[in-house]
Amino acid sequence: MPLHKKARLMVWLMPISFWLWCGLAFLNVSSASAQSLEDAQQKFLRGNYEDVIKIAKKQVEDGSSSDWRILLVRSLLTVGRYGEAYTNAQNGVGDYPMQLRSFLLAREAALYQNDLNGANRRLMQVQDILEQRRGLSGGDNLVAAGEAMLLLGVEPQVVLQNCFRPAEQADPPPREAFLASGNLALNKHDFSLAADAFRAGLKKFPGDPDMESGLAMAFEPSDREQMMVHIEAALKTNPHHIPTLLLLVDHLIDAEEYDEADKQLALVLKVNPNRPEALAYRAVLAHLRNDPGLERESREAALKYYQTNPEVDYLIGKKLAQKYRFTEAAAAQRRALDFEPDFLPAQRELAEDLLRLGQDDDGWQLAESTHKKDAYDVTSYNLSMLHERMMKFQTLTNSHFIVHMSPLEAGLYGDRVLDLLEHARATLCAKYGVELAQPTVVEIFPEQKDFAVRTFGMPGNPGYLGVCFGSVITANSPASQAPNPANWEDVLWHEFCHVVTLTDTRNRMPRWLSEGISVYEERQANPLWGEKMNLAYRDMILHGELTPLGKLSGAFLAPTNSEHLLFAYYESSLVVQFIVDRFGMEALKKILGDLHDGDEVNKAIAQRTAPLPELEKQFAAFAKDLAEKLAPGVDLAKPPALHSKIEQTAWEVGHPNNYYTRMREATELMRAKDWAKARPILESVAESYHGEKKEENPLWLLAVTEKNLRDTNAELATLQKFATQESDFSDLFVRLVELCGERKDWASVTNYAERLLAINPLSPVPYRGLAQAGTALGNNEQAITAYRKLLMLDPPDPAETHFQLAKLLHARGNSESEAKRNVLEALEDAPRYREAQRLLLELEKTPPSPQADGAEASNVLTGTVAPLNAARTAQRAVPTGGGNP
After folding, report:
1. Distance CA 428, CA 131 (A)
2. How many structural domains are present in the chain?
3. N or C: where does the chain have the smaller number of CB atoms within 10 Å of the terminal CB?
4. How far, in Å, CA of 779 to CA of 653, rounded?
């Protein structure tokens, strides 16, 4: 739209909204006619479209109000009778030349007759009506004016505040006002505002299927359970409600329930055999089933009546991106932009696709451009702000990886990240026979909201530690998970396994199998990593909560709680373990090869293992056996919810050695600080079963009790036993470093400090422990590295840290300049530090070694990574520590 036209609209926007508001009083529809029209509109909302068309046609023939013509055109568009809709819409414009809604419907109908010139002409006529302010009255016209202004390029926030909001406050308000506000917010990814608008609409119009459907869409990114509640509510009122059925199709595709998605599409196409979105979804399903003929045919059918409709390829690309087909998704968005170069949703999606493909320069440039054109779109705004923050990241590289981290974290553990990734690459690529053609990009975010924006386009989704897009990995750093971070080594191993399997299958694998292999490979790399059988999983398995293989991907979409989500990861990994144990690793690799060739997953699994019903039966028996063997002979029955103390006592008398009862008794004694009584109970419980994580484990509670009883020898023994099964409990390893340091057991200090670095490399504890241990054991290089990194964390005793580092550097003999710099910094903080003064005098007598110092200083100050040390890489060949998927 020309800038001067847009400016003219902005100038008179405020007065016209007030005038339209005042015009509400001039509606001149008779009460009898209104009642009849209202009945027909209710029929429309209930999905009785053909009945409405018959009634509306009769009313139009009888010369009734423009509202009947509008209802007729809407109904014809809904059922896909585009030619009739076009004819009636054009007649409506002629009969009611001042009715804005008629012009907008005429524009829409023209688009679906491939009459682009006619559509543009109608929009220009709407602009003329708005600019001349002729014949405008009614709340519906206020909404229509706002919708027209959006098409004409007026800022969305201005339209919201000056058209849609005033219409919502009319008495009575038109339902279209709430729908317009909600849909505008949905289009801009402002899901909270959208939910508020639709909820407000439902208060005025209870049971309205359009409101329920809009509210379901607002919940889609964050709460699939609530989304399903509102889907059911919408379909209860109108079983033929196309937007809701399409949302359900979208959800079923995400859950990989493709056959059920087909059934819902059939319902949509029964109402409207020409609905572009339905045919676009059919093209998506054909692509996912490796049927290029049907895919092409469905896309062509979707574009039959509106050949340059950018929404078709935009939707196809968006769904393919959600299935990790980013190359194909980017191609679809480019096709959409060929139809309409300024179509901002496709620009935004293409930007995200390029970023997920590792094409950062083009991706960020397009994201910035989209944000400048549409300041309201939440995703574009988030990406723009994130890009500014990521410009400050540091990049670490070698021949196989490009790692982006904050400068502090890059200096502290960037070398360990590259070592871990190299080890994962060597192990997993060889195991699966995969060659990676391009470097893997890894982005580690110190703030969870930045990780979420980079990964999902908006803050939220706190349950994720990392995500892999194929050749790009995003991960939360330990800093984003304080105070209890997961093991970052475990997380990166898990995500890099996705790189291998997604490459192996050309991203053609269901989510459950992808996650299952990654969790399985965590356990293969380190028995302490990954999800393992526990009491919660045991109960789920024994109570029949295993998900059938064909529905496992859906278990990730709408879990009841975080425990059920983790169980989906665990069950998926058990399926992989079962296939490998029963049919061999080669069977799993052949399944991946079949997926690479485009086979459907259940077919691939059946032809490489056993028929699916038989396989599911065998797997259920396998899982049940594992669950029953968790703690044989231990009373693991959960105490029932009893209504009286007497009933509870009676149950406990009948279960004297029940695990849960005794744990509760011990924790109550601990709360009362009766450590002496708690100790024998915890000793007995821990002897029977100690497989839970972190604070839920009786070994940890026993160690806490022993600490309070000042029996540190027993505490140390208990913690050392606990450490043989734990991988991501930082409190455990902090205490072990402390206790072993007090005993000058420097080998153990080194071991536990290394394990703590795999959990929290931002804590000073492991560096101080490694520095002290290195000094005591004569491993000066370990001590020097640890002191350097400790200084990055601003320790409370900087003078002592600088002095100890200076002393070690001086002893090494070729680092006098760095040694002098550190001793001077020690004296700056503590001018009377006698030992530092003496060391400075010594250094003044020693000639400098500028070449060695220069190389070292560069490495320390910039945080760049030196060439990989083969010995250190070998030492970490089987790293310890762990984390959740």
Report:
1. 66
2. 2
3. N
4. 59
